[in-house]
Amino acid sequence: MIPLTETTSDSTVKVIQLPTGRQQMNRLFQLGVVREEEIVVVKNNGHGPLLIMVKDTKVILGRGIAGRVMVELQSNTDVEQV
């Protein structure tokens, strides 16, 4: 389990744990980021907001809240499969 901010671009991850704050949970819920949901990290260049794909919708997520979303790596399209 790692924070969403530690993922790389083009990674597919599954949401495991969300922040406990009511406002943060509501914000993520409105964006479609819920537990057990698979999301694709479209762009994460190590600083600034992350661009993620949730249910065929691109969403920009700030690093502060993204760092509190714990995920599990599902696949990484940058890695060559042998």
Task: Describe what you observe in this structure.
It is a single chain. With 82 residues, the chain is of the alpha+beta class. It has one domain (2-76): SH3 type barrels. It has helices at 22-31, 63-66, and strands at residues 2-3, 11-17, 38-43, 50-54, 57-61, 70-76. The chain has a six-stranded antiparallel beta sheet with strand order 1-6-2-3-4-5. A hairpin with a 2-residue loop joins strand 4 (50-54) and strand 5. It is globular and about 30 Å long. The mean pLDDT is 90.
Q: Which percent bin holds the helix content?
A: 10-25%
Mean pLDDT: 90
Give start-end ranges of low-pLDDT stretches. Answer: none
Question: How many helices does DSSP assign?
Answer: 2
Radius of gyration: 12 Å
Report the strand count. 6
- What structural class do you assign from the helix and strand content? alpha+beta
List the secondary-structure elements in sequence, H or E.
EEHEEEHE
CATH topology: SH3 type barrels
Strand content: 35-45%
Rounded to the nearest angstrom, the distance between the terminal CA atoms is 25 Å
Task: Please identify, by name, the CATH architecture.
Answer: Roll
How many domains, in number, for the residues?
1
* Largest sheet report: 6 strands, antiparallel
CATH class: Mainly Beta
Lateral arrangement of strands in the main beta sheet:
1-6-2-3-4-5
CATH-defined superfamily = Ferrous iron transport protein A (FeoA)
